[in-house]
Amino acid sequence: MEGITLLDIQLYGIFFLLGAFTVKSLSEMMNWSGRRDMSELWLIFLLGFIIHDTVLRPYRIRYSVLKWGVIAAVALFFLYKDVFFIVRDDKLALMAAMSVLPPIAMFALLGIYVLSVFLFKRRLRHTFSHSRMIPTMPVLTTALIMSLLISYYIP
Question: Is residue 90 within 8 Å of 39, Cβ to Cβ?
């Protein structure tokens, strides 16, 4: 029973993101020096997958339009408004994670992430009370793993 099929580049991208998300999550939780701005990393990753989906795979136009349309809508919604008071880096990391996933896993990731942030907002705000904005990288890392597991079992 296999529901999700990933290309090699998507698999490598997921492993890269999981590693970067883990470093950023541990840095946020332990107040390590890795807490610096990683926006450039997420934007370069997004650009790489835009090129991959549009230039290297032009025969999948419906797939690309759906995927990048949803990502653009999420970008406009999250970056325009301070929804849940999430740190800007985490919003860009969410879009980077969505860019590497197929649509079913992308929707699962978005749903799990938004639900988790909504449910655990008070706990996250208490844990990271030094700032007005809430870092949610640990939630995003967990949501990415959960969305991959869920989409693997959906045919």
Answer: no
Question: DSSP character for 33?
Answer: G
The Cα angle at residue 70 between residues 80 and 54, in degrees rounded to 5 = 115
Residue 91, H or E segment: helix 88-100
Query: If you search the block for the tokens 């999250």, which residue do you land on?
Result: 78
Helices 88-100/103-127 angle, 10° precision: 160
More reliable by pLDDT, 56 or 83: 56
pLDDT per residue over 66-82, tens digit each?
889 999 998 888 877 77
- Torsion angle, CA of 29/32/34/36, rounded to 10 degrees? 90
Task: State pTM to two decimals.
Answer: 0.84
3-class DSSP assignment, residue 86: strand
CA nearest neighbour of 117 among 99, 98, 135, 132: 135
What whole-number distance in Å separates Cα of residue 148 and Cα of residue 145? 5
End-to-end CA distance of the chain: 7
- Give the Cα separation of 32 and 29 in Å (integer): 8
Three-class DSSP category at 37: coil
